[in-house]
Specification:
Strand content: 15-25%
Structural class: alpha+beta
Radius of gyration: 24 Å
């Protein structure tokens, strides 16, 4: 088997063009879609117009970006557009992308701090712009798990989901292993496998780009060999270096281009779209979370009384993070203080303040024009790619450098939830942890029903009690904790109870309306082995 195939095994065949919409056509909340008018210097400039029908989420136009205006378009929202799905139909939709993995036991014992994981995705965009990845490191210890949220198309998220874990794994390899791999490649011998992937059949690799990806990765490990520090890599440093290097390679590949016309267009689609990434590396009791953007990692902690507490292990990189706002303003001249962040968006356009790709916020104007002039016709015909952000004076404005948070696992740390912002926009972190914790343990805290100031009749209260009973029985509908969490995220009513009618209507919305009400949702739930974690914490240590 060729070396490239050994390192980049193709799990599912299929052309990229079939799985990704054009990354050069912005299609979600980070860069609002359809014909968008942007007010610049008291003039109106056509930002972009996609061929696909779509709309910006109303709450973001009014709450987050009043500068973005969308021409009115009337949608028929009467009940005739919606129909009630039966419970089996609802389950079929919710479970279509679910995946579970249990860590194998050895001699009847589980020696890993990870028992296994559940994952799932629910699209709002068509096609979905989120991606997910999980892999076991074979040449070093540990497991990698990540969620990737694409914007302006799915191309960048697709590329990052395939490539980032290889960059992380290579960054963690000792010099001897790197030398062994390089010698094997050079001599044409079999290469040591680096990762064991755990993927749903719908999660696939880009067959056409595998050689390009391999060549860039090989260049990276050759440079690591040249540095020859002789020290074992630090995990935090390895994560930061891997993120930054992959983003640099995405940019370089787009600048250099490729003789193959398909690949040439593909690398440009990847570079001009963008993606956030939230990645966890678990090795024994050592948990590192590397986050770039607005994905989130939340730890589920079980207190002594059985209740659940949420511990956030990542920070959102957006306008709600004061440290991020200060960082960005400090990196640009004083005269840009009022324009670098506008309407809570980077340069008034981009919601996440850190991301892969998005070269329109990183390249100089001269470089953008040069690449566009020498690029394919599809690139030149797209209004978005030719548009230069307003007040674009001192790039780069965007970075893919992650913020890494370390946590030493304790026996009370039961699970970790990684989710794209589509989850956190609909559920509070404490509610997420409670729902997952009760699902995994089967123990439900019988709290008094609260109605949040609503005036309810006795009949309505009886209905709420019946719904709560139904909620407990609904646990048995789901064999996957991520599916169960998404069911709550989409179907919860104002009382925090899954309402089948609401869930049915939300899942039956037509494509052009679905994105108005929610975003793509991607969830990974990692369950920890408390016995192993307790044994690995030395006696007397504060856990």
């Amino acid at each position: 088997m060729p070396v490239t195939s050994q390192l980049f095994a193709v799990l599912r065949n299929g052309e990229i063009s079939k799985i990704c919409s054009s990354a050069l056509q912005p299609q979600n909340r980070h860069l609002c879609r359809k014909a968008v008018i942007l007010r610049v210097n008291k003039c109106h400039l056509r930002f972009f117009q996609t061929a696909n029908s779509g709309i910006c989420e109303p709450k973001q136009l009014t709450k987050r970006s009043p500068a973005l205006q969308v021409p009115s378009r009337k949608y028929q929202t009467s009940s005739q557009l919606l129909y009630n799905l039966t419970p089996p139909q609802v389950n079929s939709i919710l479970k279509a992308n679910e995946y579970s993995f249990k860590v194998p036991e050895f001699d009847g014992k589980n020696v890993s701090s990870v028992l296994g994981f559940d994952s799932n995705q629910l699209p709002a965009n068509a096609p979905i712009e989120d991606r997910r990845s999980v892999a076991t490191c074979l040449q070093t210890r540990g497991m990698l798990l990540g969620v990737f949220d694409g914007h302006a198309g799915c191309a960048c998220a697709q590329a990052v989901s395939e490539r980032l874990f290889y960059y992380i794994a290579v960054s963690l390899l000792p010099q001897e292993t790197l030398i062994e791999i390089e010698n094997a490649v050079e001599s044409g011998r079999a290469v040591l496998p680096i990762l064991q992937w755990h993927k749903h059949p719908n999660d696939y690799f880009s067959k056409e780009a595998s050689r390009l990806y391999f060549n860039s990765l090989r260049t990276y490990w050759q440079e690591l060999l040249d540095l020859n520090s002789g020290e074992n890599p630090d995990i935090k440093e390895a994560l930061v270096n891997a993120f930054k290097r992959l983003d640099n390679d995405l940019s370089l590949e787009a600048q250099v281009g490729d003789p193959n016309s398909f690949l040439n267009y593909w690398v440009l689609r990847v570079a001009f779209s963008g993606a956030t990434a939230c990645v966890a590396h678990v090795d024994g009791v050592d948990l590192h979370v590397a986050n770039t953007g607005d994905g989130r990692a939340v730890l589920g902690v079980q207190e002594e009384d059985g209740s659940w507490a949420a511990m956030t292990l990542s920070n959102d990189h957006n306008a709600q993070n004061e440290n991020e706002v200060k960082r960005i303003r400090s990196e640009h001249p004083k005269n840009e203080e009022k324009t670098v962040i506008k309407q809570d968006r980077l340069l008034g356009l981009l919601m996440p303040f850190r991301a892969f790709g998005d070269v329109k916020f990183k390249w100089s104007i001269e470089l953008q024009k040069r690449v566009l002039e020498s690029g394919p016709d599809q690139l030149n015909e797209n209004e978005y790619t030719k548009f230069i952000p307003p007040n674009y004076h001192t790039p780069p404005y965007l970075t893919a450098k992650p913020e890494v948070i370390y946590h030493k696992l304790r026996p009370q740390d039961k699970f970790l939830v990684l989710g794209s912002d589509g989850l956190w926009e609909t559920m509070h972190r404490q509610e997420v942890v409670r729902v997952v914790g009760e699902y995994l343990t089967g123990v439900h805290q019988q709290q008094p029903i609260t109605v949040g100031g609503y005036r309810v009749t006795l009949g309505q209260m009886q209905g709420l009690l019946m719904e709560r009973r139904a909620r407990f029985s609904s646990v048995f509908e789901d064999q996957n904790s991520a599916t169960h969490l998404i069911r709550h995220a989409v179907g919860n009513n104002e009382f925090g109870v899954v309402d089948h009618e609401r869930l049915s209507k939300m899942l039956s919305l037509p494509e052009e309306l679905a994105r108005m009400y929610r975003d793509d949702i991607t969830v990974i739930v990692v369950q920890f082995n408390s016995h192993v974690i307790g044994a690995q914490n030395k006696p007397g240590e504060d856990v």
